[in-house]
């Protein structure tokens, strides 16, 4: 089985071809950092226009690299939400048009399902159920992944996502966009215990997240402390929150066979180290897909397409794009 996957829900435009035996024949991706940098964050209208320009050539390049044509594809999987609606529509409408023109089925994929199933693409032996910490710019959730289409959400953020907190802190410290990698680089030069910062919700019995208060406290301290120490102390606070909340979720889901992380914040070395220790403490394997598969990409959408199509799950061409779509 061969699936073409399309992704355009935030600021990455991507196309990929993936087989049911986990071969990634090609994956192409265009970032938009330069277009959004002057604004210090993703501007939805700019993102949507950039997707329109980038997607067609990316699909052609992906087909060419894989040395296949649309006729060889079994189905077309496109992100149908959640995300910035203009961008989601670009990818979904493109997927529908290709499906109609080539007479192929359409598989509408929930972007979060793409992240949730991505570790099964890189880890053939990963069995259900597993606990997934999904930490990106738009999402901060703990999900028990029980099967295809069976996701039990144990926790979410009551305000900002962890990646959003990194991005806002970077902006406060004048470190540029995207913020996460910049904060991590600056943090490496500072003392993570130099400045006391809050750890919102740590110790609470439900594994939810909150980062707005932490960010506000950083805002109050900017200019009073060295940026390196602020970045390092902020990062440590986020790591402590993620580890504590994940520990509570593990206690609520003793059936989990592995601890898995996905989303852009999974690129952070300190986050990975804390989760590695946590998993080891629980006698569980810790699984982090390769970085490019952790951040937004089309291979994970194609893979979710493989998993859904194998179960006979396809969607009608009048399916609407959804800005909000909880798993
Ligand atoms: O999954 P992703 O590429 O896009 C979505 O948000 O869906 O995640 C991007 C987020 C951004 O907020 C970025 O600042 C954060 O992941 N990020 C990081 C690091 N690299 C990316 N956060 C902390 N440390 C990093 N090294
Ligand atoms: Zn994402």
From TrEMBL:
The keyword Acyltransferase applies. NCBIfam families: gcp_kae1 (TIGR00329), T6A_TsaD_YgjD (TIGR03723). Residues 24-303 form the Gcp-like domain. It comes from Sphingomonas suaedae. Keywords: Acyltransferase, Cytoplasm, Iron, Metal-binding, Transferase, tRNA processing. It is an enzyme of class 2 (transferase). PANTHER family: TRNA N6-ADENOSINE THREONYLCARBAMOYLTRANSFERASE, TRNA N6-ADENOSINE THREONYLCARBAMOYLTRANSFERASE, MITOCHONDRIAL. Belongs to the KAE1 / TsaD family. One of its GO terms (molecular function) is iron ion binding. This is tRNA N6-adenosine threonylcarbamoyltransferase. Its EC number is 2.3.1.234. GO terms for cellular component: cytoplasm. It holds the Pfam family TsaD. Fe cation binds at residues 111, 115, 296. It catalyses: L-threonylcarbamoyladenylate + adenosine(37) in tRNA = N(6)-L-threonylcarbamoyladenosine(37) in tRNA + AMP + H(+).
